[in-house]
Amino acid sequence: MNILITAGGTSEKIDTVRSITNHSTGRLGKEIGELFLAQGHRVTYITTPQAVQPTKESNLTIIEIDSTKELETTLLEQFDHQKFDGIIHSMAVSDFTTETTLSEDLFIEKLAAKLTADGHLPDATDLRETLYRSLDEIGKTIQQEKKIPSGTDRLLLFLKKNPKIIAMLRKQQPHAVLVGFKLLVGVSTEELIRVGQSILIKNNCDLVLANDLEEIQGSHHKGILIDALGQTETAQTKKEIAQLIVKKVEEKWRNQ
Amino acid sequence: MNILITAGGTSEKIDTVRSITNHSTGRLGKEIGELFLAQGHRVTYITTPQAVQPTKESNLTIIEIDSTKELETTLLEQFDHQKFDGIIHSMAVSDFTTETTLSEDLFIEKLAAKLTADGHLPDATDLRETLYRSLDEIGKTIQQEKKIPSGTDRLLLFLKKNPKIIAMLRKQQPHAVLVGFKLLVGVSTEELIRVGQSILIKNNCDLVLANDLEEIQGSHHKGILIDALGQTETAQTKKEIAQLIVKKVEEKWRNQ
């Protein structure tokens, strides 16, 4: 099979020296990649600079990206000249990217000017609408400085929605076996399965691996693999998760 | 000499999986640490998990921290039982830490409520004051969620000032030879020296290493070491910067 794996975590730049990072060691992606390779499959592996990588070999192509936008561009380039049989989307992708950063002082100056643009304040009934429009204009028009000014007590960071990568994967590669990932924090097993299923349905995945940050520690990594029939299998380590995913993806591919 | 080095870059948590990171490879700190050790000095080395570290040896103690607040606590603990002769503060410390994160919808709801708290909008003359007070209250009172909600188009992140570590270093260890660092982006040599000098005076440093991100690439790393008399020496690599700093710190210590 021709396999695509995304792993690691994206970073969204705030300025030239700071960014918002989604933490991910990439160790689970590495396990999955190495197991697909060991089974004789070809792997295109898209990851981020901080994450660990599978051991290099001839059937493996590694591509590094930083931001969600770069991930999107890189994936579209790949889809231009490759068709994948299986896609394992384990990268921790930022839902939001930075739009603008401004000091409290500048924000209040801009907001006050917008609220009183008509020579007076809006009616209480028009207030919310004016606030939405003002925030939108401030978010879109204020140019980001090269480095954030340090002489202010409070900064406001505007973040805007990133493109949804998982939806794009299904749209671009309709016949691939698609595995989505969902990481939650401190929820029950029932909730984990419920959210995993909803992600599977919403994004038209074949499988979703649901896991909880509080169940990942050292070699222990609990993961629940959910399929489109709602059936679940549970693994307790990264190796077991990799084995489950490779087995299920191969099965689904054979049965298509 | 008993030397303290800070290196790497701090991270400020947004939620359990995301943080704002100040990028720093720690490679310059490693060079400086290893050169002090090679000269027979004792080194306490405070760094961050992503940064490279000096090669372990008996005269070296390494301590890892994440956030600026943790750095402050760790330094104060060290100062309780150690007196340092030289302090090299090369860590990229975040000027701001996360205060709260909220969706545009929740922000506008809260702000509209505060603006109309008296049953009507404030006068245009009171508007700014009301906006400052409202932002302050929203920043301080809204509890952060475990993971940011993804179902909103825009997020607002409130950041507040971190404690100034360099000022605390001088206050706590008045007799140490103190070396500050200043990283700028895309400025002239004159501007670099001007800003470096102002940092030196403001924080009562003995030396400041001023460098420009655009002059750091591969083995090339231009650094200008400025002393309290305004004299400067320029290095072109990390090794040369380390040599300059070790030489100057030893000299200043001998001449005290």
UniProtKB/TrEMBL annotation, chains A, B:
One of its GO terms (biological process) is coenzyme A biosynthetic process. InterPro entries: CoaB-like_sf, CoaB_strep, DNA/pantothenate-metab_flavo_C. Gene3D superfamilies: CoaB-like (3.40.50.10300). GO terms for molecular function: ligase activity. Residues 2-103, 143-250 form the DNA/pantothenate metabolism flavoprotein C-terminal domain. It holds the Pfam family DFP. The keyword Ligase applies. Coiled coil: none annotated. Keywords: Ligase. SUPFAM superfamilies: CoaB-like. This is Phosphopantothenate--cysteine ligase. The gene is coaB.
